[in-house]
Structure formats: structure tokens, C-alpha cells
Amino acid sequence: MEINYQETSKDLLKRIDIHETYGARNIDLWNTEVLQPKPGYKILDVGCGAGKQCFLYSDYTKGQADVTGGDFSEELLGKARAKLDERGDKNVRFQFLDFNKPFAFEANTFDFVSSAFAIYYASDLQFTFGEAHRVIKPGGRLFVTGPLPENKQMFYDIIKEASNQDIPPMPGSSRFKGDIFNTISAFFSHTELLTFENPLTFPQVAPFVEYVRASLSEDRKLWTSMFNGKEEYEALISKIEQVATRWFERDGKLVMTKVVGGILATK
After folding, report:
1. Each residue of 108-161: pLDDT tens digit?
2. Can you tell me the distance from the alpha carbon of 120 to that of 115, in angstroms, rounded to the nearest whole number?
3. What CA dihedral angle connects 244, 249, 250 and 255, to 10 degrees?
4. For the structural domain made of 9-266, what CATH number should be given?
């Protein structure tokens, strides 16, 4: 299954910033509560982006875990390396990694492999999760996070009301509980699905519209069934802002709940 998906690092980082600014819960805290990385662990983060998870693991273990972050975006790897230079972590490294191709690691290397909102975009789930399983040590773990079907329902409801169109299938949420969970279960000895809910409360319409722009970016192929070119894109954003304003005037706030699944598997 080819994922026709594209977004800029600017949009990704903007959404992360909005999650942290307006969210009621800390997904990083949840992540470490689940994984509890230990000093001496060898850790791989697949689709590491700008390195957030890698630095989280380094801080949690006080620099005593061996952490590798891999991503196919040289732009995001550049941001990760710049942050690494700033921080000075000696135990963290970043390298190119395309999860649709063989992982450049020996078998049975890592105590756990994680992937936050990334690896579920793999074209061939069997291949990609087979590679993840191969590089994990016996008894090691895989932790994959991604949106569940009920994720940010308000966001989709407002867009649907504004556009009078059906929402295109989301590659992550539309197959997270099904294809992805089942594929991982076939490789690993024990697999469970965890859930994390984080309500984002927008005290104004403007930051919600910022989030919409960062999600429906004009060059993001996922959404182009709803608009064709910049003029139609801006017209859709304007309609979404009008609907969001009506909702805000009615309720006094906009609350969008992120509903995240975490697939935790043991080899």
C-alpha cells in the first residue's frame, strides 16, 4: 500500500508546539511511564524527526542509554543534529533511515524500538515491522504510537461542516487498530493496545485555525481531494474559520481531544 502523503517539517513542528501549548496532558510523560528506559539500554527511534523522543530517553536515563534516531528527512535530521550540538549529549546519534528499506543494523541489537506518529505510514507493513522485529533483542520491546479512529473528532466535524465533503481516509487512524495491530501481533510474542487521551482547549479561534493550516497544508497530498490550488485552499480555510467561530461563540471554547493509541509488543 503506497501512502500518498506529504507534509513539511514546519507544519509538523507547529502541530507539536500546539499540542504542548494547549494540551492538558503530557504525552512524553506517558511514553516514559510505559517504556521506563534504563541506563545501559540500546534504543532506536524510527522516524525520529527533530529528535524529541531521543532526547526524552537521554534525559530519562541521565545520558546513560545508547540512543539512535533515524529519519528519511534530511531537513529534520539537520534540526535534530543542531539540537544535539546545543545539548552536547554524547550518547545520542542521528542517521538516515528509510523504514521502507532494510534497517542498517545487525539483528538483536536494541532493547526497544519506538516510533511516534511515523512508522505506521510504511508502504509494506509486513516488511517494515519485520525489520523492527529483526533488530530488537529477544525479550525486547516495540512501541508504536499513532492516532486512533476517534482522534480529534471535533477537528474533523468542523471541516466536514465547512466543506460538505467526506473526510479522506487517514493513513494512520484508519488502519491503526486493524492492519497495523494485527501485523505487529503476528511478529511478536505479546502485543497490547494502550490509549492516551489529551484534550486541547483553544481559548480563541486563531490557534485552532493555525492547527488547521498545519494539518491541511496546501502541499500535503492527503487533503488535496478537498481543494485544487491555493485559491481553493484559502477558500476552504475561510469556511473552516467561520464554522469554528460559530462553535466558539456557542460553547465559549474549542476542545479537540487527541486520542492516541500505543501498540506495545514484546519479542
Report:
1. 999 999 999 888 789 899 999 999 999 999 999 999 999 898 999 999 999 999
2. 8
3. 50
4. 3.40.50.150
